[in-house]
Write a structure and sequence with these properties.
The complex is a heterodimer of chains A (115) and B (114).
Chain A lengths: L4 E3 L2 E4 L5 E6 L6 E7 L5 E8 L2 E4 L8 E4 L6 E5 L8 E8 L9 E2 L3 E5 L1
Chain B lengths: L2 E3 L4 E5 L4 E3 L2 E3 L5 E7 L5 E7 L5 E3 L5 E5 L4 E6 L8 E9 L5 E4 L3 E6 L1
Parallel strand pairs in B: 2-12
Antiparallel strand pairs in B: 1-4, 3-9, 5-6, 5-10, 7-8, 8-9, 10-11, 10-12
The chains are: A mainly beta (115), B mainly beta (114).
């Protein structure tokens, strides 16, 4: 059973460009979480999605960031008009359900560098 | 507000020595607690978790952690550290009132001396 897949693993964008990060959850998982890890910091929650629904986006910046998890295909985290401060590692995690006892399985992350 | 504090940013221990990484949490309800390990350039791997029951939990790779409600702590321990344990360790609390997002501490980087 393949784990959580993220691509690309590394992404370089110039200021003002768009970044699209993809996350394919583990087989059978329909819950996806996105986290951001800034340099020298822990992971910070961004958004929680189920298929076709955003459940909790309390950690998402108000502008330029959006996320989706369509019925078919991977979850996408989209950052428009990137700025240097967006440089970070973005991790997604998936789970089979919500709440106890479902645990989250993490992907290897996408490291975004904005030049 | 919920929070997790890992007081030690960086710890160095000798190979074969014992290890304790500290974690304190602030959470209004029953905490669900986790320890993850992150090797350089990699994602996070779950070491162990506490949901309820026995306050001493065993995890993978010889790690254990003890939940102490009176101290709001969930410290990670290992009796004998191996060089391959060098990594960053994150403590987290699961906020299941809001869908199960994890709230992480800042991490403790562990270095192992030969």
């Amino acid at each position: 059973n393949a784990g959580v897949m993220q691509n690309p693993r590394h992404l370089v964008r110039r200021r003002g460009q768009e970044a699209r990060l993809r996350c394919s959850p583990m087989k059978g998982h329909s819950h996806v979480y996105w986290y951001r890890q800034l340099p020298e910091e822990g992971l910070k929650f961004m958004v929680y999605l189920q298929k076709e629904n955003i459940i909790d986006e309390s950690g998402m910046p108000k502008e330029r960031f959006s996320a989706e998890f369509p019925k078919e295909g991977p979850s996408i985290l989209r950052i428009q008009q990137v700025v240097r401060g967006d440089s970070a590692a973005y991790f997604c995690a998936s789970s089979a359900g919500q709440g106890i006892p479902y645990e989250q399985y993490f992907g290897p992350g996408t490291r975004l560098t904005v030049t | 507000a919920q929070s997790v504090t890992q007081p030690d940013i960086h710890i160095t221990v000798s190979e074969g020595a014992s290890l304790e990484l500290r974690c304190n949490y602030s959470y209004g309800a029953t905490p669900y607690l986790f320890w993850y390990v992150q090797s350089p350039g990699q994602g996070l791997q779950l070491l162990l978790k506490y949901f309820s029951g026995d306050t001493l939990v065993q995890g993978i790779k010889g790690f254990e952690a003890e939940f102490k409600r009176s101290q709001s702590s969930f410290n990670l321990r290992k009796p004998s550290v191996h060089w391959s344990d060098a990594a960053e360790y994150f403590c987290a609390v699961g906020d299941y009132n809001q869908g199960g997002k994890l709230i992480f501490g800042q991490g403790t980087e562990l270095s192992v001396k030969p």
